[in-house]
Amino acid sequence: MATMSSSTRRAAADDAAQPLRYAFHYCNVRPGLPPAAGPQVFGERAAAINTLRDKWLNGTELTYYFYDRPSDGQTVTLSDGSSRFVPWAGPAEQKQAVRKAFDAWAKLGLGLRFREVASPEQAMVRIGFMAGDGSWSYVGRALLDVAAGERTMNIGWDVTRDLDTAIHEIGHALGFNHEHQNPFSGIVWDEEKVYAALAAPPNRWSRQKTHFNILRKLDESTVEGTSWDPDSVMHYPFGPGLIQQPEMYRVEPLQPAGGLSARDIAQVRKIYPAQPPVDEFSELVLAESHRLQIAAGQQIDLRIKPPRTRSYQIATFGEADTLLALFEDSAGDLKFRGGDDDSGEDRNAQLKLRLQRGRSYVLRVRMYYAAAAGETAVMWW
Question: Which residues form the Peptidase metallopeptidase domain (predicted)?
C-alpha cells in the first residue's frame, strides 16, 4: 500500500500538471496460489475455483508473530560487494500499529480470528520489519508454502502514521489481490511513464517488478464480479499522468479515500461471514453420507465424534471441487490435523487420519464448484 500524507495529497491536488513529481512507497506483493489449470477447468468452474483458491476456510484462526530476537534477520550483499546483517525486528510502536491493523479487520465481525503467538513455529503469518526491503505479503493460503523460519510479510517503512499500509498487507494475507490490477477496471496505463516513475526513488523497481505489481492484469477467473473499487484499501494511489483511461486521471491523481471501503467490507464479510459457536455444529454420523446442500463458494462445518480410537477415512463423493480440513477441538481451540484440496482435479478430496475416542473434531468442507446441485456428499467410515 502506498504512503501518502495529507500534505502530499494537498500538493497533488494543487499541482496536478506535473505527472512524475509524486513518488509513493508501493507494496511489492508476493504470489498467491496458481490458478487451477488443465483443459477440464474452464468457464464457470475455473471462476468458482480461482476466486476462492487463495482464501482461507472460514473459521480459521490466523496466528501471527513479530520477529524480535537479535538473531532474526539476514545477511545482504551490498553494491560494493561487502555484506552486512540486517535485522527483521521492529520497534514496539510499529508492532502496535500492525496490531491495530489486525483489529481493523477483526472489528468487522468476520468468521476469521487473529491471535498473536510467542514463537514463529506457532505462526502462520510471520512479520518482519526489515529496512530497505519494502512492504509486502504473500497472498492468502500461499503463505503456508513458505519455509518455516522465513517471513511471510514485511513492513518496510513507518506505519504508525500510515495504518493503511498494514491493513493492506493483512488484506493480502487474507487472500485479496491488488484492486488496481482488476481486469474490469478499465485502466489504460501510460506504460513507459509507469516504468520510469517506479524506477525512481523511493521504489527503484525493475521493469519486471513494476509489471507484476501494477501493469499486469489479473486473470478474469480470479476476480469476483465485474466492478472496480478505486477506494479499496487494496488499491494504490497514482499521481496524474500515469493513467490514460479513465480520462479524468490524466490530470487528476487517483487517491483512494483511505481505510477499508464499503466494498472491501462487503466482500470480506461475504467470504468470511460470522460463524455460530463451535458447539452448535451438526454432527456427521459415522458411515452415513451427508448430502452437501451448499452452493458454490459456501462452506459447511460438521462435528465428528469417534466411537473408538482407530484410523478413519473422510471423503467427498460426486463431481465437485472441494476443500476438506479436519481440526481437533481442544476446549474451543481448533488444532489442524489434515486437509485435502481436489479443486481442478478429476478426483475427490479425502483424508485418512487416526482419531481418538473421547475427543471431538470439526470437519470443514468448502464447495468450490459442483457439476450438479445436491449431488455431492461427504462421509466418514
Answer: 52-232
Q: What is the pLDDT of residues 292-334, one digit of tens each?
A: 999 989 999 999 999 999 999 999 999 999 999 999 999 888 9
**Grid coordinates given for 117:** 503467538
Domain extent for 301? 278-380
Q: Does residue 169 sit in the same domain as residue 225? A: yes
Instruction: Express each pLDDT in 333-380 by its tens digit.
Output: 899 999 999 999 989 999 999 999 999 999 999 999 998 877 899 999
Assess whether 351 and 238 both reside in one domain. no
Cell numbers for 332 = 474451543
The domain tally of the chain equals 2
Measured CA to CA, the distance from residue 175 to residue 324 in angstroms comes to 18
Summarize pLDDT for 258-295 with one digit per residue, the tens. 999 999 999 999 999 999 888 889 999 999 999 999 99
